[in-house]
UniProtKB/TrEMBL annotation:
Residues 1-24 form the signal peptide. Residues 38-106 form the BON domain. It holds the Pfam family BON. Coiled coil: none annotated. This is Osmotically-inducible protein Y. Keywords: Periplasm, Repeat, Signal.
């Protein structure tokens, strides 16, 4: 089960990297290649940290990084999960700031 979660998180991280790369090519460059690559690495590390944390679901939380600022979005079952996600993200090397936009849906807590 953990291996499956790790594979999914890796695929999602890779998808975020490649999807953002296509978008970055069409927009005016706002970051250097080094900054962009660093943000992609941070995003992948945060997703991997979510996979490793047994209280969080990496599939419920989206991660986006811009200049070291990590933005978390998605929906979780409890406020404690929201706070745990922010703590886990803050502990990742390279994260300068965390913007936590995760919403709480009590129905998700009941589904577990």
């Amino acid at each position: 089960m953990q291996l499956r979660k790790l594979i999914v998180a890796t695929a999602m991280g890779a998808g975020a990297v490649f999807g953002t790369a296509v978008q970055a090519q069409s927009d005016a460059p706002k970051q250097s290649v080094g900054e962009y690559a660093s943000d992609a690495v941070i995003t992948t590390k945060v997703k991997a940290a979510f996979v490793a944390d047994k209280t969080l679901s990496a599939l419920d939380i989206a991660v986006e990084t811009n200049n070291g600022t990590v933005t978390l979005t998605g929906t979780v079952g409890t406020e404690a999960e929201t706070e745990q996600a922010a703590r886990v993200a803050r502990d990742v090397e390279g994260v300068k700031q965390v913007q936590n936009d995760i919403k709480v849906d009590p129905a998700k807590a009941q589904a577990k």
